[in-house]
Amino acid sequence: MTSGAADAGSELLDVAGLRVTFDTPRGPLVAVDGVNLALAHGETLGIVGESGSGKTVLSRAILGLLPATAHVEGSVRFEERELLGAPESTLGDLRGARIAMVFQDPMSSLNPVHRVGRQIAEPLQVHLGLSRRQAAEGAVGLLEQVGIPAAAQRARAYPVQLSGGMRQRVMIAMALSCGPSLLLADEPTTGLDVTIQAQILDLLADQRRLRSMAMLLVSHDLGVVATRTDRVMVMYAGRAVEVAATNRLFSATKMPYTEGLLGATPRLAERSHTRLVAIPGRPPDPLQRPAGCAFAPRCTYATDKCREAAPPLAAADDDPSHLYACWHPLRGAHELHSPRNADAP
Length: 345
Description:
By secondary structure, the chain is α/β, with parallel strands linked by helices. The chain is 30% helix and 23% strand. It has helices at residues 55-63, 88-94, 106-109, 116-128, 132-145, 151-154, 164-176, 194-211, 222-225, 246-251, 256-263, 304-308, and strands at residues 11-24, 27-40, 44-48, 70-78, 81-82, 99-102, 182-186, 214-219, 231-236, 239-245, 314-316, 319-324. Strand 11 (314-316) and strand 12 form a beta hairpin. Helix 4 (116-128) packs across helix 5, helix 4 packs parallel to helix 7 (164-176) and helix 7 runs parallel beside helix 8 (194-211). The chain is globular, with a radius of gyration of 21 Å. The two termini are 32 Å apart.
């Protein structure tokens, strides 16, 4: 078992050695490089990293939503069924019914020419076999569950007639419509103001608890996952560089990149207008990765060893479920960055 998940045999999702490569005019681009993760029933895993770290490609690879130009290797087992290489008919039956996804931009995911009620009702008819009337009633009920007022009236609206927060609630209603056991939420609050972000994240957390779902919550912000996940996987340049229980990750950080993300996270304990500490430099060109640790050019702790050899994902001495990829792991507590002090939306 990988990534410090639950006991063997309890995994809902088991990803092993996942590698995703795209052909480009400059050569192969490795977007995800040998990622392993396991997710237990009812568990929430946060996947965090900067833009280009591979987290969105990873989530789409799990659901089989990558373009035909992607070359995918490894294994993705869901409910003990292998999804990589499975026929599209099998994946189509699973999507929406057993695995659902909330995308970054609901405006581009919702059909602009269909009323939102109809879009929610469609999977109820396709996957659950409900009649048109039953599905329409179910759609209104789902809109009520996700906190949309005057749900019957809103069901007759088109996406353009709703606010960004309302559209994201509609997407969540669609995702929850058939009672999936796994929800993938890819940057679900992108483009929303802080207050609406908090409402959407709390809604997802509440629905996960009520429905006993497992959830993968993808974000670029450690503050978002601080109080809403059981474990966190930090990704950099297509690889998992640190995996730990959420409290452990914040209080006993090992990977300097994780420390950098923590330093860039606003905290309530600090004064207003306190300058955040940016990580110097930029992520490596995915077509020209350095020979050693990909983070070495930006890391203040890097040595020649870091620049020559990539560190493996190893277990911490005091907690075998805490994994990190670093030749010079950080030592000591990082109470300043604990979840209870994080300024999470």
